[in-house]
Structures are given as structure tokens and as C-alpha cells.
Specification:
InterPro entries: Flavoprotein-like_sf, FMN_Rdtase-like_dom, NAD(P)H-dep_reductase. The chain is α/β, with parallel strands linked by helices. The chain contains five helices and five strands. The chain has one domain: Rossmann fold (3-Layer(aba) Sandwich). Helices cover about 35% and strands about 15% of the residues. The protein is globular, with a radius of gyration of 16 Å. The two termini are about 20 Å apart. The structure holds flavin mononucleotide (FMN). The site of flavin mononucleotide has 13 residues, from α1.
Length: about 180
């Protein structure tokens, strides 16, 4: 078993999500001592504070998975200049009840892919606001704003630009250090 297990949360439920493809390409760049698990967020209930004392099994599962992880990587689209509701819903569900947040202290990384030119920059900034409040130390640099055009991925889901792969490798190398620095 790898020494460090990293949870990956993709902010899109879409089958052909470019963010899921980006997450899968990123996983290939991790070192052998790191393993990655994409967490399911599509089956969570809409957050309702009335359920805090009786959280759904899917919420308990998500919280346990986040707690078991050495770090969390978010790979998200931008929806209407913010993060998708499904991602915010996952963040809210796993942050409660008050005092029992799963996010506290988890070294976080943030990336995103969009078809638009600003490559999820605004969504990522909103996500960083949430993570700062939740006390999840979030790596500041390098920022990853990916614009996906025709041919960005090949048929097998590989990123076709060697420069982009090199850039993402640099991101992963920094994130590995970030996780180790925050390891308890
Ligand atoms: C509801 C909705 C809102 C969107 N808003 C934005 C946006 O604010 N900025 C942007 O760059 N792209 C926006 N897009 C386009 C997304 O970049 C594009 O749909 C992308 O493929 C979504 O990521 P996914 O493939 O991982 O699902 C939006 C798409 C949807 C469905």
C-alpha cells in the first residue's frame, strides 16, 4: 500500500468530463509512494442542516474517505463564474456538523479545465475562499488554468502537449512536497 493516499474530487458529474480526464492524466504523474482515489459526490443529498445529527450514509462515507486521505486534490469546472453546485454541496456536507468538519488540516490542491479562455480562474478563487475558511492548507502555486480545445486529449485520454504534461508534472512534484510538509 502506498504511504500517502490522496483523495481526488472532480467537480463535474458529466460522463465525458474534461475535468475527470484531467484528473486521470494527473494521477499518472504521481510518485509510487502516492496513490489516488476519486471520491463519489454525485450520490450526496442536498445539504440540509436538519440532517446534521443523522447524516446520510453517503455523507458519512465521504467524510471517512476525506479523513483517511493524506491530502485532497480538487479538479473542477467553472459554472457561471463559480464552482458547480455539486462541488459546493460536497464541501458543505463534509464540513458539518459544526466542529466535525472532515476538511480541517487537509493539504489541498486546486486545478481546473474549461473550454473558456480563463480556464476556471474564478471558480478556483471561490474554491480557495471555502478551503481557507475550512482550514485546509491549499497550495498557492503553481496555478493550473487549463483551456481545453479540440485535440487536447488523445483517444486514450492522454494530454497531447508535452509542454502541458511537463507543467503538470511540475505541479505534482510541488504538491507531493506540500503534502509531506503538512503530514502529521
Ligand atoms: C451550467 C454551466 C455553466 C458554465 N459556466 C462557465 C463559466 O463560467 N466559465 C467557463 O469557462 N465555462 C463555463 N461553462 C462551460 C464549461 O467550461 C464546459 O461545459 C466544461 O466542459 C465543463 O467541464 P466538464 O467537461 O468537466 O463537465 C459552463 C457550463 C455549464 C454547463
Amino acid at each position: 500500500m502506498s504511504q500517502y493516499q490522496i483523495a481526488i474530487i472532480v467537480g463535474s458529474l458529466r460522463k465525458d468530463s474534461i475535468n475527470r480526464k484531467l484528473a486521470q492524466a494527473l494521477i499518472k504523474l504521481g510518485p509510487s509512494e502516492f496513490s489516488f482515489k476519486q471520491l463519489e459526490i454525485g450520490d450526496l443529498p442536498l445539504y440540509n442542516q436538519d440532517q446534521d445529527a443523522n447524516q446520510a450514509a453517503s455523507v458519512v462515507r465521504l467524510k471517512n474517505e476525506v479523513r483517511a486521505a493524506s491530502g485532497v486534490i480538487f479538479v473542477t469546472p467553472e459554472y457561471n463564474r463559480s464552482i458547480p453546485g455539486v462541488l459546493k454541496n460536497a464541501i458543505d456536507n463534509a464540513s458539518r456538523p459544526y466542529g466535525d468538519s472532515a476538511w480541517t488540516g487537509k493539504p489541498a490542491g486546486v486545478l481546473g479545465a474549461s473550454i473558456g479562455t480563463i480556464g476556471t480562474a474564478l471558480a478556483q478563487q471561490h474554491l480557495r475562499n471555502c478551503l481557507a475558511y475550512l482550514d485546509a492548507p491549499t497550495m498557492g502555486q503553481p496555478e493550473v488554468f487549463i483551456q481545453v480545445k479540440e485535440g487536447f486529449f488523445d483517444e486514450a485520454g492522454n494530454i497531447t502537449s508535452a509542454d502541458t504534461v511537463r507543467f503538470l508534472q511540475g505541479w505534482m512534484d510541488r504538491y507531493v512536497l506540500w503534502v509531506k510538509r503538512h503530514a502529521e
